[in-house]
Amino acid sequence: MANINTTQYALLGMLSFKPMSGYDIKKFTDRSISFFWSENYGHIYPVLRKLEKTGLATKKIEHGKGSPDKKIYSITEDGRRALKEWLYAPVQKEIFRLEILLKLFFGYWTETDNMIEKVLHHKESAENTLRELLEIEDHINGEPHEFLKGKPPYMKLCLNYGKLFYEMVIRWCDETLNNLEKSKKEEQ
User: Fold this and answer.
1) Domain of 71, in residue numbers
2) Model's pTM, two decimal places?
């Protein structure tokens, strides 16, 4: 499965929960998988049209009273088969890209204080994300959504990955800040 469009499978996965509009998919994605996968409207709408064209999803128009019409997409049986086939396929090699590491790698071209500021910002961002994940965990541990009842804890497993990942990022930031502070003292 080289060069596959993973967005289509992300959208099929979202539609496997319930029929949704592109807006609903974006909102649901932002509240569920955004710490490890993001989609934007520029990708969502063209892919939804492609899913409909290829028979993996259907579209129904909901006429709103005083609001614009809404295009609601549903996964088809062919869409479910395609999603399941993709789920059984091997995971593609991940491309790991972090701007903080790229800037730190070339940090010798700037002042240590600049790098300290970058790492502090990165730590703050990781702390904020970890707080969000803990809020999501509280929500998931409360009353589960109807579509989650009786299902294995796959979402919780993803959430746990995120929590551990951001805890590691925060620890790395603390260690990096200590090293940068030592380096700064040695420069003086």
Assistant:
1) 6-88
2) 0.76
